[in-house]
Amino acid sequence: MVTFHSEQDMINFGEKLASHLFPGSVLTLEGELGAGKTTFTKGIGRGLGISKVINSPTFTIVKVYQGRLPLYHFDAYRLEGQNEELGFEEMFEDEGVCVIEWPIFIQDILPQERLDIHIIKNEDETRSFLFEAHGEVYEEITKEMAL
To answer: Can you give the three-state secondary structure of the chain, one letter per residue?
Structure first.
């Protein structure tokens, strides 16, 4: 578990994590509203060389940003109970990095190999991140980053 004391700390950590990501990377972000999922994604975007402002894709479901690797930023919150084919699986296997907020709503289609990140908003306004690696490559990333 890693604890961050500010939004800037989360952004800086996201930027550092991005240096370990590769084409086809899939990260899920779980946490209550206001936990910092989009803030953390901003750091990943910065680490991927994205200069556009990254904001929540709440009403568009997925936003695509171009950097050294494309960033697919998903917000699956509004997909609860959705059974239609949405084409997300193709993005998971693409040359980009997928960051998925509210993954519980699309858990049936998530790839087995991924990095799950649980964000806890603490009473003192700090954020604690718990990392759960699924697959050797993500286990290696968590070891390299000492998570």
So the answer is: CEEECCHHHHHHHHHHHHCCCCCCCEEEEECCCCCCHHHHHHHHHHHCCCCCCCCCCCCCCEEEECCCCCEEEEECHHHCCCCCCCCHHHHHCCCCEEEEECHHHHHHHCCCCEEEEEEEECCCCCEEEEEEEECHHHHHHHHHCCC
Query: Residue 75 and residue 38: Cα distance in Å, rounded?
Result: 10
Look at residue 70 and tell me if it is in a domain. yes
Domain membership flag for residue 26: yes
Summarised one tens digit per residue, pLDDT across range 89-117 is 788 888 999 999 999 999 989 999 999 99
Q: Residue 45's domain spans which residues?
A: 2-79+113-144
The number of folded domains in the chain is: 1
Q: pLDDT, tens digit, for every residue of 12-36?
A: 999 999 999 999 999 999 999 999 9
**Does residue 103 lie in a domain region?**
no
With respect to residue 74, please indicate whether it lies within any of the assigned structural domains: yes
Q: pTM of the predicted model, to two decimals?
A: 0.92
- Considering only residues 77 and 114, tell me which one the structure prediction assigns the higher pLDDT: 114
